[in-house]
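REQUEST FORM: STRUCTURE PREDICTION
Request ID: SP-0412
Submitted by: Lab K.M.
Chain count: 1
Length (residues): 381
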Amino acid sequence: MKNRNVLVLFLLLAGILVSCNSGTTTQSKKTPTLKDAFEGKFYIGTALNEWQITGKDSAGVEVIKNQFQAIVAENCMKSGPIHPREGEYNFELPDQFVEFGVANDKWITGHCLIWHSQAPRWFFTDDEGNDVSREVMIERMKEHIYTVVGRYKGKIKGWDVVNEAIMEDGSMRNSKFLQIVGDDFIKLAFQFAHEADPDAELYYNDYNEWYPGKRDAIVQMVRDLKAEGIRIDGIGMQGHIGMNSPSLEDYEAAIVAYANEGMKVMITELDMSILPNRHRDVGADISTSFEYQQQLNPYTEGVPENEMKLWDNRMLDFFRLFLKHSDAVTRVTLWGVSDGTSWKNGFPIPGRTDYPLLFDRSYQPKSIVPKLIEEANNSEK
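STATUS: Completed
RESULT:
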């Protein structure tokens, strides 16, 4: 009887140990993340807004820390916010952004140094409101780039030096930089950025970068810069895409064209609108206009399952393309953390509700996320 009791006690203890070990194993099993899945293939990144940089959006911060390897500031490092008046810089938010990246071991990109939009008005004019001379404009560009790039030397790994300077037909955008300085403002911007931080990677960044005319002009720009001994490391393809455009074939052709020039290729501002495109064939009848607006904003209460599947499939196709060219693609950055904070809500039509990112309005991973993780895990480097 005594031996039997000992045996029963032994079996009970063994069962408890097995149960405890099983529970520990289950609890310690790590939830798969995007940054782990894409490790060794390319950086997976996101853009941070002010609330995330300051920590007010704590849910967004947790997603950034857990899911992404790379970060870029959505707005605070553009020339208008960071250099609002001559001789005056606002480094409060940019400093916090960079400190967050360093503390959390993220690849940090600076966005952006020279851009016609969101530039401070004073940058181009004298005290009387007239355009400054070429010499003054070049000196202002140099001072701005030296100051901003120099401040974060060794911390920011790469810079979007020039943003959106080329039109879809391949012509130069008629910006103030072009009007005052001339075609060589791009060369000068890259030259100054390299002088300010010789170790930083330098990029040209643009949207609709898959249009054949723009693609070919960017390729020629790269050739011209390299012929003059100017450093340029990569092309940023913004990647603001829709359900019908661009085609995968056109996008791949652009990736290949840039890679053939020795450029690193980055998808820098990826989001995919699920909303219908805007058309201009609307009559003047008010009821027709109202119906038209409803057609452009169909998912105010959420996206039907079948439509979400179509969105997932198209986003997955693009990531398959990026993985296919992972020898050239070095970074894929989403332009925002969650659907609720995306700039695509209300663009180009105010009041629209969009669903362009990988995490929903509650910061939960959407159905696409495990699909991307599986695709990355199954792909070869």
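NOTES: The chain has 14 helices and nine strands.
Reviewed by: T.R.
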